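User: Hey, my collaborator sent me this sequence without any context and asked if I could get a structure. I don't really work with proteins. Can you help?
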Amino acid sequence: GPALLCYTDSNTAGACLDRNGLRPCRYYITKDNRVICASEAGVIPSINPADIVKKGRLRPGHLISIDFKSHRVVYDEEIKEAIANSQPFGKWIREEGMTLADVRQHAKRPAHKYNFSAGHDLRMAYATGGAACDDGPQPGDPSDQGLRAFGYTTESLELL
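Assistant: No problem. I've predicted the 3D structure and written it out in structure-token form, which is a compact way to encode the shape of the chain:
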């Protein structure tokens, strides 16, 4: 169902709304530095409206966090920017990612047919009718992509 997740680790406290935004999340920040966050506005009726410094609501997929050490409220954009800049994600994708052109190139490679029977080691033969190959797929060989797509390895087949 709809989710509003509130969390704390004793250094920070915060809330995150799921991407559908079906569960409302409203917050107040008061003059005496209280942050009140709940599904409905007015959950604490004794709050004087004159004491409210800021009212807001989380939008779908957004966060709010209170940093107790620095005594400040951190909003969605700053949180996500800090996470995005914390590691070289773009570099990793450029170096390790696959493009559609890579997938097309690997699809042109000869497929392997795996032959195995009880009591025998896994044998691999090219689907084009080639001779059996005793050494199996080599590390980095994308020809076992059907297995990898579903989380299997040749070792998994050998266990069968």
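In plain terms: The longest helix spans residues 76-84. You can pass these tokens on to your collaborator as they are.
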